[in-house]
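Listing S7. Sequence submitted for prediction.
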Amino acid sequence: MYYEIREVESYTLQLSLENGKFEKPRLSRFSGKSFRVLKNGFWGYAAGDYSLKDGLERAEKLAIHSGSSVIDERSFSGKAVFKPEKDFEDFDVEEKVKLLREIDERLKADGVVSRRAVYIESVKRVRVENSSGGEVFCQVPRCGTIIQAFAKGRTLQFYAERHMRAGGYEIALSAVDAAEKVSKIAVELSNAGSPPSGKLNVVMNPSLTGVFIHEAFGHAAEADHVLQNSSVLKGRLGEAVADESVNVIDDPTLPEFGYFPFDDEGYRAERKTIIENGILKSFLNSRETAKRVGGVAGNGRADGIEIPIVRMSNTYIDAGDHSFEELLEEARDGVLLYGSRGGETNPATGYFHFNAQYGYIVRDGEVREMIRDVSLSGSTLEILREIKLGKEISFSPGFCGKAGQLVPVSDGGPFALVKAFVGGE
C-alpha cells in the first residue's frame, strides 16, 4: 500500500485601487491536510485536520474497489525556500497603497474613463511525505500587480497587463513604469479600426506565442489527456510534429510565476523537453501517468489540498534565429498581434481560437495602423510545422484552470511568424 500526506499553508493579500478609490483589502489564510492511499490499484482520498493515523485510515477506507492504478513511488527529500530580493513583509500596507496610487496617477490620460490597479502578494508552504520514505518542504512567495484601463473613443476598449513572478516586493516596484503604456494602448485601441479577415501571415508577439504554446499545444501534452484519448499527440512520441527549429520546454525551476521546486506529489521538479528539434520527446506526467505512458513525473499539481493532477508550470517555445525585422519582412502583408483575451482550444483535435488584445496591419513589411477585436484560429500542428521563430523569449504570468482547479503558470516564447485564420471577434 502506498500513501501520501500533504500539508498546505497559504497566505494572500490583495489591495485594489479603482479610479483613485481604495477598496477594502482582501486577506486570506488557509491551512489543510490531505491523505491519499493507493490500495489494490484504487485511490482513497481524505482531507481534514486529522492525525497521521486517522487521516490514513479514513483514506484507506475509501479505497473501496480494485483498480489498475500504478505509480512511480520514487522518494525525494529536501527543503527549498525561495528567497526574494525584497521581502514584502518588510513593507507596510501604507507603502503598498502608495505604490498603487503612483500607478493610478500614471494611468490617467485623455480618453481613459476607468482605471484599476491591483497589488497581490502570496506565500505557499507545502510539506509532502510518502510511504517510500520521502519528505519534502517548499516555500514559494509570489508578488506582482495587475494594471487595467478602459478608454472611450470610437468604441469602448479595455487593456490590461499582469506583472507577476515568484519573488518579492521588487516585482511590484518594477511594474510601475508599465502604467503609462497600459493607458496609451487603451486609448489607441479605442480609436482603432476593424481587422481584415482570411488566412493571413500573422506575426505573434511573445505573449501571444506563449498563450498559443500553452493552450493549443501544452494541454495536449498532458499525459492524462493522452490516456483519456483526448490529445492530438496520442501515439506520436518519437515523431516529427513541428518544424525542426521548434523546441518546446516546461521548466518549473525558472523563477517565473509557475515556479516550484517540488510538485504536489513530493517529486523533484526538473526541466522537461516536450519537443526537441521538431520531434515529440515526452509528455508531462504525474506519478501515475509516468508509470502508465512512460516518462518522468514531476508535474502533479494541486489547488490547495485538492487531488494533484497533471499540470504545466513555465511552458515555452524556445527562441529561433530570426530578427523581428526579418519576420515582418517575410510576412510582407498580414497582421502583427499582441497578447490574448482568452479563447478556446480542443486538445483532441488541435483546433484553437484566440482573441488577441490588439494588433497592427502589416503592409510591405512595415507596421501600420492599429486594429482591435481580432480573432486568431487554426490547427496547432499545422502552425508548428510552418512556424518561424524570433531570437528572444519573454514570459507572461497567468492562472491555468483544469478540473475546477487553478494554479499559477507562465507561458513564453519569441515573436513568431505563422499562417492562420484572422477575423473580427
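Caption to Listing S7: primary sequence and predicted C-alpha cells for the chain studied. The chain has two domains: 2-190, 198-424. Residues 198-424 form one domain.
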